[in-house]
Structures are given as C-alpha cells and as structure tokens.
From TrEMBL:
GO terms for molecular function: DNA binding; DNA-binding transcription factor activity. It comes from the Bacteria. Belongs to the LysR transcriptional regulatory family. GO terms for cellular component: protein-DNA complex. This is DNA-binding transcriptional regulator, LysR family. It comes from Branchiibius hedensis. Gene3D superfamilies: Periplasmic binding protein-like II, Winged helix-like DNA-binding domain superfamily/Winged helix DNA-binding domain. Signal peptide: none annotated.
C-alpha cells in the first residue's frame, strides 16, 4: 500500500487493464476477477486519487484528462515495484534508458538483457547526458552516432488514424494524402531524432501540415487524441494502439534505426551490448 493513500498495486494494475481494454468486462477477464469486483475497485481508486479517472459510456470506458495524467505514474509505479523486487533478489542493477518502454521492440530488447534491469524513461537529450555522466549503463533509442553504438534493427513507420477514417482500410498510405489534416508531433527538445524523422517524411511527401496544439511525453496520449478524431500521428509500427485507432503502414524508404549505446569503459554496458550485437 502507498503511504498516505489507500491504494495498493493491484488497484493500479486494475486501472491499467481498464485503460488498455476499454471495458470493465474485458479488463476483468484479463485480471481474472469478476466484473462487479473490478468496477468497485476502480471506484475505490478514484476516491483515493480524488478525481474521476474514466468517462463511462454505452460503448465502454475512456480515460478522462485526469486519468491520462495519472496513467504514466501508475505504469511507472508498477514497473518500479517489479524492477525493485528483481534487484532485491538478484543484486546489481543494469540501468537502461529509453524514451518509451511500451514499444514492442523495447520490450524485446529488455527481455534479452541480464536481470535485474532498471528502466528510466526520459527525452533523448537527457538520455544522452545520463549515459555520459554514468547515471545510465545503456540507452536503447536512435540517437545517431554515439559511444559504443550497436545497430540492432530498422523499424517501419505507420500512420495512426481513427477507425472509420477514409485511410483506415488501406494496406498502406502515402502521407501526401494527408496534407490538409492535423498531425501530432512531440516536443522538439524531448525527441529531436523522432521529430527530424517525421519532418523528413513530410518533406518526402511534399506536405507541411498543421500540427496538433497539445504535446505529451507519452506515446499513449497522442493515440487517444487520434481515437477522438482530433489528429493523425506518425508512429512506430510496434506502438500499441488503443481501441478506436488503426495503424496503417506509410509508403516510404525511411525507417527508425533502433540502436543501443554504452560507454566503452563501463563493464556492465559492454556485457549488455554484447548480448544485443
């Protein structure tokens, strides 16, 4: 239980399950509990937090603005508990920095590293600075040239569109078809390499679209705005999509270059990079 709040980690797992599944019925099935019990626990969590976390509707449950702000902290709390338990059992921790630990490629990389692993999420510039200062052992991202870089794989990019959008049923999409639509872009200072790639895609397609007014450091919030029909979002093809979003591959020769980085004089980093090479 969290000090000062009547919240345990099971409540956070329930909350994340509902956010992922979109209904309490599906979330209860995933959590192996009854639907009434899970609904009661969500109400308990909302009372403890002091805010409504979900909008209830005939078609399911959608995160409120408060729920969207709460979600990354709930996810980080559960991750920290899991990593802490591993550290307590197994000893010295390998500190890994990522921009987003929810992507399939990142999950695959983390599974290949020797436990225990402590994951830190941060923007690209902060990750590079922490790697140089020794606060991180390994960074998994696309930071361009860097120390001890191990190129791992190229990932296809896609366009996240709302269900029912005119492009949702296509096998692929040319971004030139979206020149009059609003596109989401993250903060330049948080993900400069990603923003540069998206800008290159826009240039390749010959478009300069309007950009969405709100920004987030999470990959999930923009997709919820896509589901609401407020914007489109260029995304990595492995990005988990919430209900109401379709990921359509973009016709392009450009890719995201997944790499791992570590300082050559760091033995833990060297051993980890050898596993990923």
């Amino acid at each position: 239980m969290m000090a000062g709040m009547d919240v345990d980690f099971d409540l956070l797992a329930d909350f994340l399950a509902v956010a992922q599944e979109g209904t309490t019925i599906a979330a209860a099935r995933a959590r192996h509990v009854s639907q009434p019990a899970l609904s009661a626990r969500i109400v308990r969590l909302e009372k403890a937090v002091g805010a409504a976390l979900f909008e209830r509707g005939a078609n399911g449950m959608r995160l409120t603005a408060a729920g969207q702000r709460f979600e990354p902290f709930a996810r980080q709390a559960l991750t920290a508990l899991e990593r802490g338990a591993a550290a307590a059992r197994d000893g010295e921790v390998l500190r890994v920095g990522v921009v987003d630990d929810e992507l399939a490629v990142v999950q695959h990389v983390l599974a290949r590293l020797p436990p225990p692993v402590q994951v830190q999420r941060a923007g690209e510039r902060e990750l590079r600075a922490k790697l140089q200062s020794g606060e991180l052992d390994v960074v998994v991202a696309d930071l361009g040239p860097g120390p001890g870089r191990v190129a791992m794989e190229q990932e296809e990019v896609g366009l996240a569109v709302p269900e029912g959008h005119r492009l949702a049923d296509g096998e692929s999409v040319d971004l030139s078809e979206t020149s009059h639509e609003v596109h989401y872009l993250p903060r330049q200072d948080f993900a400069p390499s990603w923003v540069a790639l998206v800008r290159r895609l826009f240039d390749e397609a010959g478009i300069d679209p309007k950009t969405y007014a709100v920004q987030s450091d999470s990959s999930l919030n923009p997709l919820r705005w896509v589901a609401a029909g407020e914007c489109l979002a260029v995304s990595l093809i492995s990005t988990p999509t919430p209900p109401g979003v379709v990921m359509v591959p973009i016709r392009t020769t450009l890719h995201y270059e997944w790499s791992a980085y570590g300082e050559p004089d760091n033995p833990r980093a060297t051993a980890a990079l050898q596993r990923l090479a």
